[in-house]
Amino acid sequence: MATHNIVVLGAGVSGLTTAYLLSQDPSNSITVVAKHMPGDYDIEYCSPWAGANYFPTGQPGSNHAKWERETWKPLTEITEKYPEAGIHYQDTIIYNRKKDQNSTTGQAFSVLVDENPWYKEVLSDFKVIPKHQLPPGIDNAQTFTSVCINTAIYLPWLVGQCRKNGTVFKRAVVKHVADAANAHHSGKTADVVINCTGLSSKKLGGVRDDKLLPARGQIVLVRNDPGIMSSISGTDDGEDELFYMMTRAAGGGTVLGGCYQKHQWDPLPDPNLATRIMKRAIELCPQLVAKGQGIEGLDIIRHGVGLRPLREGGPRIEKEKINGVAVVHNYGHGGYGYQSSFGCAAETVRLVKETLQGKKLGAKL
């Protein structure tokens, strides 16, 4: 059997999911090369800061929606078959205020808060909350069961699955994407390089994608457990501020967020924003703290900042040749890297197979 030498550049959720799918084919010999690995909490490495959950935001008929649709089944299969992966189901409530429709966050999350969203066909128990049961100021709301991922467990689980299938992991800083072809653990030149470097593709030689920009997110991680996962269409604190809340599996704490600050690179948590986040959480979900308590009732684990790898026009999943090296790109997923991870990885694997088949035909000719 012919062996395909593959280098995956980047070890965030996109790189690890792609490597995981590729590693299931024994003809693939894979090396994951990355500056940051699971366990790192660096501003450049967004994946550990994510909630993470499944809140679909892709417009109907878009690739974004297709990738989210294709990711739901793999996530539920992992939830049910592999409890060690750190994913669990959570009851979810989504609130919408029509006054948020024209705001930055309202537009970004319009699909999630739609009264009749496409994803109701994907989730088994989607229900619209009757109007007479809505809290004051809320125009519509829905409930369903979704998943929440403890990233501190899930990313290492993906590493473990890849290693079980023979994947080798190496730390390295790669200045030019074509240089990654020389990083395969066999010492041979890789047949294909898969670029999953996220926001770093903005500065990576051979790529330098000017369409990439950071969408800064800030969270407060607390020990309090509200018993539900929730979000709302917007806030009164600013157009780029939002609210979401989710409790990670296996004792991972409850994530309170957040914001969606485009072109903002600041790595330090803003204490004033943190206070607003905590106040919004208690206002929407009073059971988060003991009766009568405010933010002093929150037991804080840590504050965090992550830079979502947002890309104008959507993620880049395509193939090209750079300095004679076959490259397949999979980056730029903004805030939906986890909930589109398997759909995007499957598309990437398809392009890798096309690339390898083309190399094989070229060799025969």
TrEMBL record:
Binding positions for D-dopa per the UniProt entry: Y244, G335
Keyword hit for Oxidoreductase:
yes
Keyword line: FAD, Flavoprotein, Oxidoreductase, Peroxisome
Q: Which cofactor does it need?
A: FAD
- What Pfam families does UniProt report for this protein, alphabetically? DAO
Q: Which GO terms describe its cellular component?
A: peroxisomal matrix
UniProt domain FAD dependent oxidoreductase: residue ranges: 6-350
> Which GO BP terms, alphabetically?
D-amino acid catabolic process
Task: Return the InterPro entries for the record.
Answer: D-amino_acid_oxidase_CS (IPR006181), DAO (IPR023209), FAD-dep_OxRdtase (IPR006076)
A GO MF term: FAD binding
Q: What is its EC number?
A: 1.4.3.3
Predominant location = other
Superkingdom of this protein's organism = Eukaryota
Q: Where does FAD bind?
A: V177, T197
Q: Where in the cell is it found?
A: Peroxisome matrix
Which reaction is this enzyme known to catalyze? a D-alpha-amino acid + O2 + H2O = a 2-oxocarboxylate + H2O2 + NH4(+)
Q: Which SUPFAM superfamilies match?
A: FAD-linked reductases, C-terminal domain, Nucleotide-binding domain
Q: Which family does it belong to?
A: Belongs to the DAMOX/DASOX family.
Protein name, UniProt field: D-amino-acid oxidase
